[in-house]
Automatic annotation (TrEMBL):
Annotated transmembrane regions: none
Lineage: Eukaryota, Viridiplantae, Streptophyta, Embryophyta, Tracheophyta
Major localization listed first in the record, in broad terms: nucleus
MADS-box domain span: 1-49
Cited Gene3D superfamilies: Transcription factor, MADS-box
A Pfam family this chain is assigned to: SRF-TF
CDD domains: MADS_SRF_like (cd00266)
Entry-linked SUPFAM superfamilies: SRF-like (SSF55455)
Keyword presence, Ion transport: no
Name of the molecule in the record: MADS-box domain-containing protein
InterPro entries from the UniProt entry: SRF-like_MADS-box (IPR033897), TF_MADSbox (IPR002100), TF_MADSbox_sf (IPR036879)
Protein keywords: DNA-binding, Nucleus, Transcription, Transcription regulation
Subcellular location: Nucleus
Amino acid sequence: MPRRKVTLAYMSNKSERKISFNKRKKGLIKKASELCTLCAVDGCAIIYSPFESQPEVWPSPEETASVLSRYNSLPEIEQTRYMTNLESFTKQRLEKVKKDVHRLQIENKRKEVKCFMYKCMAGIKKPEEFDMTNADVMRSVMEETTTALNSRMRELNIVDPNDPATSVSQNLH
């Protein structure tokens, strides 16, 4: 399902802002409650608002103090282990995207070589047209295809493993 684009704008009407704040605060507390219940974790929320003199504390001030106390007693390295800022988050995402692009480039090259191989088999292309810089990829694709063909032929009882005449050649080098 595609994500819908949300445009946020500052609400100039104070009463509309307060109504929206209260609805969102209620939703946030509900989500925090669900997270704690479904995942069996401890959590809390402290929400400050210009509309109220005291902050909203969930689930209760005592439980919130307990959760914060446990958090504050952790060594600093444990407290910040999973924290990230925008710069490190962006770097992590960029690295992931680079890896994905590299993986897709390899996958696309394999598909191009496989397509060329099938076109040669069909007489559409000539082996002389092959770009030898892709020889290692072609060797890998051919080995993979040969293994798959031999496996399928064994499944269909067409192949006798002891008879080289009935199996697809394994020596592609």
